[in-house]
Specification:
By secondary structure, this protein is of the alpha/beta class. The protein has 17 helices and 28 strands. The protein folds into four domains: 88 residues, 3-Layer(aba) Sandwich (GIY-YIG endonuclease); 183 residues, 3-Layer(aba) Sandwich (Rossmann fold), CATH 3.40.50.300; 182 residues, Rossmann fold, CATH 3.40.50; 86 residues, Alpha-Beta Plaits, CATH 3.30.70. 42% of the residues are buried. Bound molecules: adenosine-5'-diphosphate and zinc ion (2 copies).
């Protein structure tokens, strides 16, 4: 005789813009089938389709009428359930960033888990379980002996019990990576010795630009399973890596911002390299800060975390002064004989630049070429020229779909809009007056490359920017050529500023950094300083030992040599810069001394967007929160859509959060004719 049919009511969230969980009925398909647990993935009917859901609770009964309660189609029992801690992390992110839990939790999972078919999952699980690291392989690399500052930092991190955030503040080349590797090794070892499983999460801003860190981690831990998680992995790989972290077979996960939401049941430490980097902020969909979520996660798990940077974010610097983070400082370059480069500013009012180059910079380049040393030129503007124009009638290359210029790309013979991707052939004559002599205005990396090839015909010039590295693998190939010594002058955008340890580089030239000094964006100075420190840090990584080698130097061309930002840079004085910046932020009541949220609206006409925001502004009382007037965004129109925004500010994070929740509900119930989205802690306003 068959026993009674076992069934259970489950509360399930789906990837849908609805801030509720749904009740479903599970019915055992056999006597032995286990009843589902929270954290399991299920296939659920939803409207007329089927979709993957996440069980968040098992309920005794449902308020839904028995006849209307729908039955689950399938439970993904082959995979261990996601933990309560992981659901709590997603719930925190959902609440803090004002999104439904399902819209946070489900999209964070690899696609292979979110399809109706389980073929990919079954196949991946098999491979992951089989893949065992080879025990016994000895580490081939030698560990450098830590210097005193590194040792002090390592000791402090290992001494901490439970949660503690450490800001590892170390100049470029001071050996922060070595500290990460040491603490990772020791934490894993310590947990294993105590008979516990352990995993470490190491986060990097952009995996492609930091291949050296990945290589060092793999080389240091040949017997451990190291997996990477980032958006450029193929789907199958991403699924396998995610599963390896989830079932606990991966010891070390190395990932970009999306890795902060990975499932790591035995997580014992989180490390964030270049914690100030803006790429930790997701700029679409769920607009989260991976750094902030990582801190929350470490606190929730009661584990140590390390935030490393040569130029910490204003937020982290403030946390140090209030004692929330512990600061560990590395003041010296770690490698033998390596020195910080000498930084000089070149006043271009006195040393007039022609074709973008001042005489001192040209002379410095020439001497590097003569000595067979490498130079790096930094210009954060790609393309040939940011705009084309007609001298005769004043025509200018506006994008017809955006409030932006079309950028001249000479090698591709195109005008391109960097905002909507519109492309046109370069007009052979002025569209308004027929003048055939259209002029490029301003200078991008392509134009500088062209000039260098004329000025130094014998030099091997390499340009690295988003255009030159469109093909997969081409960035890597370009960097390899630089490392091999096949390049004399490397030229590029912020892509060349990050992570690389160029051994033969003794000159860094910065062409035109001044525009950021006068930006409306209050974070522009902080960003510029970090970028310049980072690019400057590419020079002098190794001692050039042959006779008469140049001292490494950084030349910055500017019309404002006395600007405090450049003066702080000359002295390698991040602390001075940061203290001044924080004092200014405090008196202006800007973050990190206040908290912001931004409501953005997009519509066919600007008036519609502004009207919606005006309505949103007066929807309900907002104690402790000030709401500014709605304003058009700086680049108002993109691809024909008009955009406006409403800035909310408060000195209390709690008051801001308390207002946002009911406000979002009220906004959702408006029948708006606009697209709108809310961003908490925006970094571009
Ligand atoms: P950062 O991450 O702070 O910019 P890295 O970790 O890349 O610096 O270290 C810079 C260089 O110094 C690397 O070549 C590294 O091998 C070397 N290095 C690090 N620590 C030591 C040490 N204790 N002794 C000698 N060399 C070291
Ligand atoms: Zn004209
Ligand atoms: Zn455009």
């Amino acid at each position: 005789m068959a026993g009674p049919v076992r069934s259970q009511v489950l509360s399930v969230v789906l990837d849908a813009p609805l801030d509720t969980a749904f009740d479903y009925l599970w019915v055992a398909s056999s006597e032995t089938e286990q009843s589902p647990q929270p954290g399991q993935l299920v296939l659920a009917p939803f409207g007329r389709r089927q979709t993957i859901g996440l069980v968040i609770a098992v309920k005794g009964s449902s308020e839904v009428e028995p006849g209307k309660l729908r039955e689950l189609l399938q439970v993904r029992g082959q995979m261990p359930a996601l933990s309560g801690d992981w659901i709590a992390l997603c719930r925190f992110a959902a609440e803090y960033y004002q999104r439904p839990l399902g819209e946070v939790a489900l999209p964070s999972l690899p696609k292979g888990l979110r399809t109706e078919s389980t073929v990919a999952l079954d196949r991946a699980l098999k491979k992951v379980v089989q893949a065992q690291p080879q025990p016994g392989a000895e580490s081939g690399v030698q560990r450098p002996k830590l210097n005193t500052e590194q040792q002090t930092a390592v000791d402090a991190i290992l001494r901490a019990e439970g949660y503690q955030a450490h800001l590892l503040f170390g100049v470029t080349g001071s050996g922060k990576t070595e500290v990460y590797l040491h603490v990772t090794e020791r934490v894993l070892q310590r947990e294993r010795d105590a008979g516990r499983q352990a995993q470490v999460l190491i986060m990097v801003p952009e995996i492609n630009l930091t291949p050296q860190l990945e290589a060092s981690v793999r080389a240091r831990f040949p017997t451990l399973q190291v997996v990477s998680l980032h958006s450029q992995l193929a789907e199958g790989e991403r699924l396998r890596h995610w599963l390896a972290a989830h079932i606990g077979s991966a010891d070390i996960v190395l990932g970009t911002r999306l890795a902060v939401l990975s499932s790591m049941p035995h997580l014992k430490m989180i490390i964030i390299d270049e914690e100030h980097d803006p790429s930790y902020k997701q700029q679409e969909g769920l607009r989260y800060s991976a750094r902030d979520l990582a801190v929350w996660r470490a606190h929730q798990q009661q584990i140590p975390m390390v935030l490393g940077s040569a130029t910490p974010s204003a937020e982290s610097w403030l946390h140090v002064s209030t004692g929330r983070y512990q600061r560990l400082t590395l003041t010296q370059r770690a490698a033998k004989n390596a020195q910080l480069p000498k930084v000089r500013v070149i006043d271009t009012e006195i040393n007039k630049a022609t074709d973008g180059f001042s005489p001192p910079l040209l002379a410095a380049l020439k001497s590097r070429l003569e000595r067979g040393e490498q130079s790096l030129l930094f210009l954060n503007r790609r393309g040939y020229a940011p705009v084309m124009h007609c001298d005769a009638c004043g025509w200018i290359s506006n994008c017809r779909r955006c409030t932006a210029f079309m950028v001249l790309h000479k090698p591709e013979r195109r005008l391109r809009c960097h905002h909507c991707s519109l492309e046109l052939r370069i007009p052979s004559a002025c569209p308004t007056c027929g003048n055939v002599d259209l002029q490029p205005l301003g200078r991008g990396t392509q134009r500088v490359e062209e000039y260098l090839q004329q000025a130094f015909p014998e030099a091997r010039v390499m340009r690295i920017d988003a255009d030159s590295t469109r093909r997969k693998g081409s960035a890597q190939a370009a960097f390899d050529a630089v490392h091999r010594g096949d390049v004399d002058i490397l030229l590029g955008t912020q892509m060349v500023a990050k992570g690389h340890d160029f051994q033969r580089l003794t000159l860094v030239g910065v062409l035109n950094p001044d525009t950021a000094l006068f930006s409306q964006d209050y974070r522009a100075g902080e960003r510029l300083f970090a970028q310049l420190m980072q690019v400057a840090g590419r020079a002098g990584r190794a001692a050039v030992n042959h006779d008469g080698a140049s001292q490494s130097e950084v030349l910055i061309q500017t019309r404002y040599p006395q600007h405090p930002l450049y003066q702080a840079l000359l002295a390698h004085d991040y602390k001075g810069f940061a203290d001044t910046m924080l004092a200014e932020r405090r008196s202006a009541n800007l973050p990190p001394y206040s908290f912001q949220a931004l409501l953005r609206a997009e519509a066919k006409t600007l008036q519609l967007a502004l009207d919606f925001l005006a309505q949103a502004r007066t929807l309900m009382p907002h104690p402790g929160v000030s709401i500014n007037d709605p304003v058009p965004m700086t680049i108002t129109r993109v691809a024909g859509i008009e955009r406006a925004q409403l800035l909310l500010e408060s000195t209390s994070r709690a008051q801001l959060q308390a207002f946002l929740r009911p406000w979002m509900q009220a906004l959702r119930s408006l029948k708006a004719r606009v697209n709108w989205m809310l961003e908490v802690d925006p970094i571009d306003i």
